[in-house]
């Protein structure tokens, strides 16, 4: 009886959290999905909502700007997450070694992640400036370029610039997750492998990678979902320009929703983005489940 009383008390204390989740998460999701089936604009609020069925979703598949945004988002996500994983792995391997100044190295690596995204975006925007940016200044000193590059006004360079800024900002997060996986590997396994004649590379391939696969998969999943939904950094850095070259799906959705006042179509875009993110999550979780089952 005492156990049941304690369980009831536990459920009672969970109620405020469940209400908060329902209000802040569940309701907005269902309301967005519901709104995606309506024609609803800020300019005509007095007329109310008009049910249009799947018309908003049909419009998406004939919207060239949507496919431009989707293309950039996919390229950005694949390249950025790949670089973050590789560089994050290198940093994690360094931080996992017993070397002088280890605590200082760990602190320095985590600094970019600690900087707010808005501040990071403004900082990179200043550094990329064609007139007074430090990036062009350094490249000219190193004789890599002879003229200032238009980092944020050229379509190709703007994509590169946003990827560099995102990799710099979030690689520490990736390295921290990978480091947590590395620290669970017993040192004795490396010592035994060394006795058997395995070099460092062979130890990395046959011991490190297999044992951190679950952690690595989760880290890649987190970063893939976050990068796929990127908004703040791009909004501050390029505002989606030039000519929508760096416009992500989230940025296009928010522009449609707030700037253009098309709430119904914006909700449909948000729903499609949510569905794509859900598919990505299911793919990663299924792959992770199969790896753990082996």
Automatic annotation (TrEMBL):
It is found in: Cell membrane. PROSITE patterns: ABC_TM1. CDD domains: TM_PBP2. Keywords: Cell membrane, Membrane, Transmembrane, Transmembrane helix, Transport. It is a multi-pass membrane protein. Belongs to the binding-protein-dependent transport system permease family. This is Maltose/maltodextrin ABC transporter, permease protein MalF.
């Amino acid at each position: 009886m005492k156990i049941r009383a304690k369980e009831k008390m536990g459920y009672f204390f969970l109620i405020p959290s469940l209400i908060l989740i329902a209000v802040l998460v569940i309701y907005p999701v269902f309301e967005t999905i519901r709104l995606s089936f309506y024609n609803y604009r800020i300019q005509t609020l007095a007329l109310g909502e008009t049910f249009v069925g799947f018309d908003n979703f049909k419009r998406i598949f004939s919207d060239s700007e949507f496919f431009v945004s989707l293309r950039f988002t996919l390229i950005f996500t694949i390249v950025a997450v790949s670089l973050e994983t590789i560089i994050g792995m290198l940093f994690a391997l360094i931080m996992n070694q017993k070397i002088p100044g280890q605590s200082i190295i760990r602190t320095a690596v985590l600094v970019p992640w600690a900087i707010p995204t808005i501040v990071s975006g403004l900082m990179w925007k200043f550094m990329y400036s064609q007139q007074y940016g430090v990036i062009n200044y350094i490249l000219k000193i190193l004789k890599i370029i002879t003229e200032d590059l238009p980092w944020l006004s050229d379509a190709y360079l703007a994509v590169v610039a946003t990827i560099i800024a995102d990799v710099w900002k979030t690689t520490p997060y990736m390295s921290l997750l990978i480091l947590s996986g590395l620290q669970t590997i017993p040192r004795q396994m490396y010592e035994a492998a060394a006795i058997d004649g395995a070099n460092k590379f062979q130890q990395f391939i046959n011991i490190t990678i297999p044992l951190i696969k679950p952690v690595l998969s989760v880290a890649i999943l987190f970063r893939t979902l976050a990068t796929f939904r990127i908004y703040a950094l791009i909004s501050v850095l390029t505002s989606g320009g030039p000519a929508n070259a760096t416009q992500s799906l989230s940025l296009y959705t928010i522009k449609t929703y707030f700037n253009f006042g098309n709430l119904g179509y914006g909700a449909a875009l948000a729903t499609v983005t949510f569905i794509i993110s859900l598919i990505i999550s299911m793919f990663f979780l299924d792959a992770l489940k199969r790896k753990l089952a082996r």
